[in-house]
Structure formats: C-alpha cells, structure tokens
Amino acid sequence: MSQTKQPHADSQKKRWLKYGTNVAIVSLVAIAICALVVAISQMTGRRLDTTSQRIYSLKPQTQNVLRDLKGKLRIVSLYSTQTKPDSRSDPEGRFAADDWPSYVQTVSDLLQEYKRTNANIDVELIDPVNSPAKVDGLIAEVTSRYGGEVKKYQGFIDQYPKQLEQIKKMANEEATAIGKLSTQEIANQDVLETLQLSADTVAGFPPLLDRNQEAIQKILKQKPPDYKGAVDVTQQAMDTLSAMLSQIIDGFEKLKADVSVPPTIRQYMVDSTPRYAAIKKSADDLLKQIKDLGELKLDDLRQSLRQQNTILVLGQSDLKVIPFNKVWQEPADMRGYASDVTLKPRFAGEQQVTSAIVSLTREKKQRVVIVRPDGAPLASPGFPPFVPGGPMSQAGARLTDLNYEVLEKDLSGTYAMQAQMQQMPSAPDATDEQMKDALWVVMAFPASQQRNPMMQQPPAPLAQKLQEHLDAGGSAVVLISPGLGGEAPDLSAALKPRGIVASTNAVIVHEAMQDDQQTGDQLDQARRLPFIFDINQYGDTLMTRPLRSLASLMVPLVPVSTEPAKGYTVTPIIPIPQNVKTWGETDIDALSKGQPSKFDPAVDQASPGFAGAISQAEKGGRLVVIGSPTFMFNRYLEIPEPTLARRGTYVSRFPGNAELFVNSVLWASGQDALLAISPAAMEVSRLRDMGNGELAMVRVLIVGGIPAIVLLAGVMVYLKRRD
Questions:
Q1: Strand 121-125 to strand 311-314: parallel, antiparallel, or no bridges (unpaired)?
Q2: Which residue stretches of 410-488 are H helix?
Q3: CB contact burial 381-416 (16+ within 10 A = b; e otherwise)
Q4: Bridge partners of residue 124, in order along the sequence
Q5: Does domain 67-146+298-321 have CATH number 3.40.30?
Q6: Is 202 exposed, middle or buried (0-12, 13-18, 19+ CB in 10 A)?
C-alpha cells in the first residue's frame, strides 16, 4: 500500500516573507482606499459627520432653509486669530489666548458647511488684522451695493452747512437784539430766568454748532466714513435747540400778558416770539430730514469692524451683522448644577446664521401679535441686567430672529393706563389695522390673574375677538389655561366650529408615583407630582414630527379633544403618556392646594388622550390649540441639562418647550419649509420610548438569543474538530 506524500513545510524565513508581504499589500491597499475616499470627499465637498451630536454638519432646519434658497448670498467672517475678544465681549475671561484659534476655526468650519450645502452661498474669511486691503474691498462693495442709503446721508451732510449758517445768522441777530434790553427794572424772577435762557441759547448755540461741525469732519475721516455718527451729532444738537426754543416760546406766551413786566420787555417778547419760532422751525425741519433718511447699511458694517470678530451675511438688498456675543453666548446661570467648573460659552453660530438668512430671503416680514386679556407685556426684551425682560422674552427673541415682527396687545387697555399713571415707559399696543393680517398668539389666561383688583374693568372680550379674527380667515396659536384662580376664558364659540374642544374645567393628572430612587434631582422629584408631565411625543403631523423624542416640561395640561367639523381638517397633538393612569381632574382648587387627587368617575374626565390639536380650514386659515398656558416661558427654557452642566456645558434640559412653540407659529403662519428643530435643540441626545413589541424582542434577544448563538457556535466548533 503506497503512502501519501506529505507536503513539504515552509521554512520560517519563507513564512515571514509570505505573510509579511501579505500584510504590506493589505496595508498599502487600505491606505490607498483611505486616500481615494479623502480625495473624493474633497473634490465633491462632502464629508461624513460621525460625532454623536453631529456638530460638523448642518441641522435639519438649516437644510430646509438652504434647500429653498434661490438668490445669491455672501457670508463674510471677520474673525481674527490674533484678536482675542476684549473685556467688553468677554467680561468673564472665558476665552484663553492659546485656545482662541480653535474658536476661529469652529466659525470657519461652520461657514464652509453652508457653502458646501448650497452653491448660491459664497463664503469669505477675512482677518481684519492681517488683511486690511480685503477690508477696504469689503467697504467698497457694501458702499456700492447699498449706495442708496449712503447717497441720502451724503446729500444731507453736504446740505447741512448751508442750513447751519442760516440758523447761526438768526441766532446771532437775536443775540444782538436781546443784548440791548435792560433788566435792572425787572423784579419778577420768572421773567429774569426766561430772558437769561433766551440769551444763553442764542449766544451759546452758534459756537456750539461750530464745534459740532468740526467733530463731524473728524467722524467722516474714519474708515469707513461714519455717516450715521455725523448725522447723530447733528440730531442731538437740533433736538437740544428745539427743546430750549420751545421752553422760551412757552415762557414768553405766559409772561407777555403779565402787566407787572416792564413794557419794553413785554414788547420784546411779542416781537421776538415769531423769530424764535422761525429758528425752531429750521431745527425741526432738519430733524424731519434726519428721520426720513432711514437705516444705513454701511453703519452696520462700520459697527461690525469696531466690535471685532463678527459675521456679515450679505443679501441682495440688505445685510445682517451677527456680533460676537450672539455667536458665542454666555451660559445661563447654573449655580447648584456646576459650581466648581468653568462654564464654557455656548456656540450658537448655526442658529444665528440661519436666522439671518431667513430674514434676508423672506419676501415679506410677517407679524405676530401676542394677545393677552390684560396685564404687563409678556415678550418685551427689557434692558438686562437692569430691566428684566418679560416672562416669554426668549420665545419672542426666537421669533424676531426668524424675521417676524413681534407686537403685543392688551385687550383691556389697563396696563398702558397704569404705566402712564406711574410715569413708566410702555411700548405701544398693536393697532387694529396691524392685527388684521397678523398671526395671533392668544394667551387664554383667566383675566383675574392679570387684572389689577383696584380697577373694576369688565373682562376682556377675548373669545369674541378671537372668533372674529378666525372667521375673517386669520390664523392663531391659542394657549389654553385651566380655570385656576379665576374663570378661564370660554373660547368654545371660536374653537368648536373648527373641531376643537378644550376642557378648561379640568387639569390632566397622573396617579401618584412611588419615590423608589433618591436621585437628589429636584426636577425628578417634581415630576412625581400629579399635574406635572414630562412629554417627549407630540403626534404625527407635519408640525410635530420633527419634535419626536425632544423632552419638554408641561405644567399644567388641559384636556383637548377633537370632533369632525365641515370644511376643516382636524388632528390631535400632544398625546398623554399611557404608561401610568391619567384622568382629567375637575377639583382644580383642591389640586392647587396640594391635596391628593383621586379619580371620581362621576365628575372627572376618564383617560384624556391629548393636550392639543390643530385645525386647517379648506380656505387656508390655520389654528393651533395647546392646553398649556406657560410652557414657553423663560423659567422652563433656562433649566440646564444636569449631566452636561456638571461638565461646564449649558444646553436646555427641555428643548421641546421652545421648539413646540416656534413650530406652532411657523405652521400656523404657513412657513412649512422651516418646520424642523433648531440647531440648539440638537445639542441633547434624543432617546425615543420603546414599544411593548420592541421591549419583548430585546428581552428575547438578551435572555435567549445570545446564549443560543454562543451554544450553537460551540457545537459547530466541536463537530468541526471532532475528526
């Protein structure tokens, strides 16, 4: 029997050579593939963002905006690697000199993403310190593109010296006339003071105007010329002159009929009053010309160069300046969350640039009017840190950034009267004409919560006004309040014909939760209260789909249901979580006092399904109703995410609150293309709830699937090696 010839074994040297060659070839192929991928990425302008928060790619809202962008835009970065923010921009000293180039690079990377996404966007990076010639070119471009405003200002400044000489001539003539008067016989102190004011005005203003003219010439020599500053100097001088002349004329009118005044002085007052009025008219004419000049785009550029580290977005007929503190925002107050860490500035560049693009490309600036029964304004920005803004100032600022004109309306009219009585400034309410074509955001508070009890005015006609607005084809976002502390406005006459029913006599509650874990988180503890809900699902509609898995805090929630309505498409939103027992509690007073809630089938609403609804008319009017009156207030938007806060980074813990409100306004005003979540909301990871089927599959996989796979692999190895 012949023996099978065994193959000759390779020597160690031959094996090294063979396997080493294989490794080298595989390594070279891998390097070649990587180089090819990088080359293709650079040639096509595309790259893969593998970061968990996708910080190197544009967010959905931005992509929606750029998808519809037709005209040309230019974005210019005026960040300098050598010019770290000064104490005005960075009072806390958060930007170290060594780290500053990385911040500049972050801005550059963002702007390049815009260019890669849409070919109509041109991006230029100009370092004002290293490239002064490019800055000069930018000035020339802005002057040429927006030259209409510049020519108006130049024309005014060119004509101003002639008008100035006329005012000086009249003032000098009057100074001569008043200098001939004798005041020795005057005993009336009011007469002496009025004449002294007259003499000081007509004698002092000509040299003052000469000094102002010298200051204007210096201002105009700046680069770029500060036309706005020059006009402001003129405006300030004319304002002062007009005010002083008004005081003189009023004083003469009162005193020239006084028989105790010497006849020569009385006669001077009679004769000179028309001359003072002529000087005042010249000053007022100049002020009117200044008012008619309008905005000056070149001044925006000048301001951006002076502020340092800004971004310019240049549109076809307008430009937007994004200052440093808008791009790198100061973190919110996180005391109690991150007391021992250095808080990092929050990068909001994408949100600001996208908002600027929206404002430059929207053909018409839409108007939003926040309608309240009475009380103080809600969205006023204030003057931080001295005068705080209204409770929904952040929401108002978001709408302003999206190029909405935000106005307010107090239907009772009492707040303006109270402010006037207290000599407090008050922004004017929206007029009836302004409200006609505006989107209404209706704050359906009980009037007694807002009204001054000392003023017994009747409740504001909120329901009637809303019904008239909707019947006329208008759109609205209505935020419903329960009847807590007073009777809630009954809006059924406006809502029910559109298929929406809001049960303001109830508040949605859930059964008590056991405190099994002591996390130390006050909000986790608060969410165990029966009337507080942590919502992360909002319904399957165009408006709410982008919000899936975004957390929001809703306190309180009013049951909202839908019913068929002819001529309207009605859809419920904000489904109530069903993992615990819920019901509509009608004993609201007891609930507000902290008394335990228990479902009473005789009076309570069983298992309310939703806390909101949307209705769209066949003719185009849109209506959003949300059963939470204050969910977009600052106090909810400013709550930081605790885990990131302890690392020194601020992001909102409940981004869904702001996004739900903004998307409601966008949808109701017909801006469907902008429906997405903002870049700021993408900073928190979103985890959606798993259904029962998915949970069962995971359990089967973990409990039985993985062990079965391991066992099967062991059997196969055993059978293979048994021979």
A1: unpaired
A2: 414-421, 432-436, 447-450, 462-471
A3: beeeeeeebbbbbbbbebbbbbbbebbbbbbbebbb
A4: 76
A5: yes
A6: buried
Closest CA to 299 of 315, 317, 314, 321: 321
The encoded tokens of residue 160 equal: 């101003």
Kindly report the pTM of this predicted structure.
Answer: 0.66
Euclidean distance between CA atoms 66 and 60, whole angstroms = 10
**Could you write out the three-class secondary structure of 127-140?**
CCCCCHHHHHHHHH
Of 623, 649, 654, nearest to 636 by C-alpha is 654
pLDDT tens string 153-204:
778 888 888 888 888 888 888 888 888 877 666 767 777 777 787 888 888 8
CA distance 149 to 36: 51
Sequence-distant (6+) residues with CB within 8 A of 389 are 379, 380, 381, 382, 634
Q: 646 CB contacts (<8 Å, ≥6 apart)?
A: 337, 338, 341
Helix, strand and coil percent figures for the chain, each rounded to 5: 45, 15, 40
Distance CA 582, CA 623 (A): 26
560 φ, ψ (degrees, to nearest 5): -130, 125
Q: Which residues are 561's β-sheet partners?
A: 501
Question: 380 near 400, Cβ under 8 Å?
Answer: no
Q: What residues are paired with 612 via a beta bridge?
A: 573, 626
Contacts of 453 (CB under 8 A, 6+ apart): none
Q: Which amino acid does the sequence have at 432?
A: D
Which tens digits make up the pLDDT trace of 398-456?
898 888 999 999 888 777 767 666 656 667 788 888 998 899 999 988 765 444 444 44
Q: How far apart are CA 324 and CA 235, in angstroms?
A: 29
